[in-house]
Amino acid sequence: LAKTTQPISMDSYEGQEVNITCSHNNIATNDYITWYQQFPSQGPRFIIQGYKTKVTNEVASLFIPADRKSSTLSLPRVSLSDTAVYYCLVGGEDSSYKLIFGSGTRLLVRP
Amino acid sequence: NAGVMQNPRHLVRRRGQEARLRCSPMKGHSHVYWYRQLPEEGLKFMVYLQKENIIDESGMPKERFSAEFPKEGPSILRIQQVVRGDSAAYFCASSPTIGLAGIEETQYFGPGTRLLVL
């Protein structure tokens, strides 16, 4: 699976939009980009997945440029409850079941 | 539909004791994965099991660690003669079919068991 690089931490305030960028320079043609969220003392939870351009769901948006070497998770109007660690993973249908989590990005939302 | 359940949520053991961690997958899920998470790090794959079969244990230490997923009952991760370095959070995930990285919502994670070895 392609190696990913994310900022270690980010700070934000309630109501702001937060964008977390992940670099995956060696992403393969068949790889998808998946983001997970992990709250303290809980297991990771799937947020969003995409292959190219833009994907949006009720929780977040995912922006993927044409070269797919990076992706940006966008959280609109964050609240205190969005404080968590966010992980970017890449892999395809022919990839392993061994999900590879990097160190993730620790997002702290302040009042 | 209950999610993945793990127990105990917290477990304290002294060096040399045994730790047994249990995981009940979501209803209808026959694939189980165990991951370990050290403080400030991401999850690391340990083992992948299907009912009564170990499919891949390449991420599990060769000694002291074992896992099973019997026909009936939860999956068990067993750590014998625990050492302080075993202190970590252990997460179980399940999926209805093989949970590959490129498939949306591929693996559903439980809340984890936090093991502390004194």
Averaging pLDDT over every residue of chain B, what do you get? 92
Largest interface, counted by CB within 8 Å of the partner chain's CB: A-B, 29 and 30 residues
| First-to-last CA distance of chain B | 37 Å
| Class computed from helices, strands and strand pairing of chain B | mainly beta
Number of strands of chain B: 11
Count up the helices of chain A. 0
Based on CA atoms alone, the radius of gyration of chain A comes out at: 13 Å
SSE string of chain B: EEEEEEEEEEE
The amount of helix of chain B comes to under 10%
H/E order of the elements of chain A?
Answer: EEEEEEEEE
- Strand count of chain A: 9
Question: What does the main sheet of chain A amount to?
Answer: 5 strands, mixed
Uncertain spans of chain B = none
User: What proportion strand of chain A?
Assistant: over 45%
